[in-house]
Amino acid sequence: MSWKSRQCAISVSRGERPWWAGWLCVGLVVVALAGRRVDGAETGDNGELTPPARQGSARQDSTQINSVFDTVSPPADSIRDLFYLVTAITGVILLLVGGMLIYCIIRFRQRKSDRGEPPQLYGSQPIELAWTVAPLLTVFVLLMVVIRTVADTRRPEIKKDAEPVRVRVIGHRWWWEYQYPDYPGLTTANELHVPGSAKDRPRPVHLELESADVVHSYWVPRLAGKTDLIPGHKNMMWFQTEQEGVYRGQCAEYCGTQHANMLIRVVVDSPDTFKTWAAHQAAPQQVDPQFAAGLKVFMERTCVNCHAIRGTEAKGTVGPDLTHLATRKTLAAGAIDNTPEKLAGWLRDPQTDKPGCDMPSLRLTEKEIQDLVGFLGSLD
């Protein structure tokens, strides 16, 4: 029997595991985890993971948060480039350390001809300097790059020809409030509309982030990084993009029961479209007389205590401003589509679509629900 065979037999007889048993277990665990489907996700025809269906198509569509690598704004570009740089540096370190480790394992492995303990070397000044100076330089470079990236993503350099758009963002449990100081009277909820930029006309968007209750975090991956909304403290972030479209995001700080349903929808319009939208949204709501029954229900029930509709006597500030509600694509911070059927279900029992939300079931009759759906659907 060879020396290695005797050693293995002795180890087994003593109840000891061979050296490779631990690595075999780790490999099996990795393979098992890689084969699992995460949170019920299934693989589509294009090979990408598709999230499971949620409360409605709005929720299912919004869960597909845009990739952090497909950026369209300078702050997001800076974060992506920082990720690539850190990955490259740490990758080189991994290759160097791993390569040296493998070399030492092979080059200095125990051989049959070895007798006794190998020579012990101490006090190599070049080696000690190398493993001290190299990490310090690496950490210093990474620190400087991170500081520069944070500064770029928080405070932009405003060009002379820029036309910035200011928006005050207030996080609530569990919805977003948007106020436009440059457009008096314009307050909306859950859907942020901003103008797109042009090369000869930059339109940076400056967000002033505040919280009305607990800590939230504003994150739209393709536009900018995560920034916290802290009660009693104002944070800033900005972005700008030339690509029109809808960009989705998510509250990135756990804030309670409906944190996962506190979604973000940013709509980048052309400058002319945004100008028209802003003028329309800032105007008081015109109420169609044929929906007077729905307005009567809204004013007589507890709706008026929480919600505001500019142009009426409804001045509530607890819930979202419902002025021009019909122009929004989603309800309940992106949890459901804004359709008559979904709106009726929401009025019937909000806890069905968003359990734990602060809006209770008002126990409305079916006639009251239909009157309210007609009235709210007319707020365009």
Question: Can you walk me through this structure?
Answer:
- The protein has 380 residues and is α+β, with helices and mostly antiparallel strands.
- It folds into 3 domains: 3-62, no CATH class; 67-106 and 127-156 and 164-269, Immunoglobulin-like, CATH 2.60.40.420; 289-377, Cupredoxins -  blue copper proteins (Immunoglobulin-like).
- 38% of the residues lie in helices and 16% in strands.
- It is built from 11 helices and 14 strands.
- It has helices spanning 3-13, 21-35, 57-62, 74-107, 125-154, 271-282, 292-300, 303-306, 340-348, 350-353, 366-377, and strands at residues 42-43, 49-50, 165-172, 175-179, 187-189, 191-195, 205-211, 216-219, 227-229, 235-239, 245-251, 263-269, 330-331, 336-337.
- The strands form 4 sheets. It has a 5-stranded mixed beta sheet. Strands 6-12-11-8-9 form a 5-stranded mixed beta sheet.
- Helix 7 (292-300) crosses helix 11 (366-377) and helix 9 (340-348) crosses helix 11.
- The longest helix has 34 residues, at 74-107.
- The protein is elongated.
Number of strands: 14
CATH class of the largest domain: Mainly Beta
State the separation between the terminal residues, measured CA to CA. 88 Å
Number of helices: 11
Structural class: alpha+beta
Major β-sheet profile = 5 strands, mixed
How many separate domains make up the residues?
3
Tell me what portion of residues adopts beta-strand conformation.
15-25%
Shape summary = elongated
CATH topology of the largest domain: Immunoglobulin-like
Helix content: 25-40%
Regarding quaternary structure, how should these chains be classified? single chain
Task: Give the neighbour order of strands across the main sheet.
Answer: 5-4-3-7-10
Instruction: Kindly report the name of the CATH homologous superfamily of the largest domain.
Output: Cupredoxins -  blue copper proteins
